[in-house]
Specification:
Distance between the termini: 56 Å
CATH topology: Growth Hormone, Chain: A
Structural class: mainly alpha
Strand content: under 5%
CATH class: Mainly Alpha
Helix content: over 70%
CATH superfamily: MFS general substrate transporter like domains
Number of helices: 7
Shape: globular
CATH architecture: Up-down Bundle
Length: about 190
């Protein structure tokens, strides 16, 4: 294997030189925009990884309904911080919060589905739900594209983020009520 790598070394160097040359053709602002975007995506991803790692240690002490409710609310709050960010660092902080608590909500939803749906039916139910999720995604992307062209991206992002926060408050309230306790079999007392 090492011999193959050595043989392809000149090709790798040529490709690296080509990439550097192409990068030098762009202006500084475009390069900074790409780096900034990459850093924001990286921050959200690292927040999700950190949230997942933290949950491996504390998940046994938190009930599913708290994972879903608080995770969804705080991830929506992180998204709102990102949407209203006055500068780059606030945006990064919002995305880290979004990632941290998005992991919590995701694990909560997954745990809930695993506890509620019989294993023999899980694949079928996930396929049916996935079909509708994909259809709704297409509808929201098309609607979002139209609304962005009419009102601008900033207004759409802030409005949808506020809507998401309101819906997460309603969801959290519904989940944490006493009459919903029977839906959460694994709840920690």
């Amino acid at each position: 294997m090492a011999e193959e790598i050595v043989q392809n070394g000149p090709l790798a160097v040529a490709q690296a030189k080509f990439a550097v040359d192409r990068g030098l053709e762009g202006d500084l602002q475009t390069g900074l925009d790409i780096v900034g975007y990459s850093l924001m995506v990286f921050s959200a991803g690292m927040g999700f990884v950190a949230g997942s790692l933290i949950l491996t240690f504390i998940a046994k002490h938190i009930g599913t309904k708290w994972l879903i409710g608080i995770g969804r609310f705080l991830s929506a709050f992180g998204y709102l911080i990102y949407a209203l960010a006055p500068n780059f660092y606030w945006a990064l902080g919002g995305l880290i919060i979004l990632g941290l608590f998005g992991a919590m909500a995701s694990i909560g939803f997954t745990t809930y589905i695993q506890n509620q749906v019989p294993l023999s039916m899980m694949g079928r139910i996930n396929n049916v739900i996935g079909f509708f999720q994909q259809g709704l995604s297409i509808v929201f992307i098309l609607a979002g594209g139209f609304l962005v062209s009419e009102y601008g991206i900033r207004i759409l992002m802030v409005c949808t983020t506020i809507l998401m926060l309101i819906l997460s408050i309603i969801l959290t309230g519904m989940i944490l009520t006493e009459k919903r306790n029977s839906l959460f079999k694994d709840e920690i007392k």
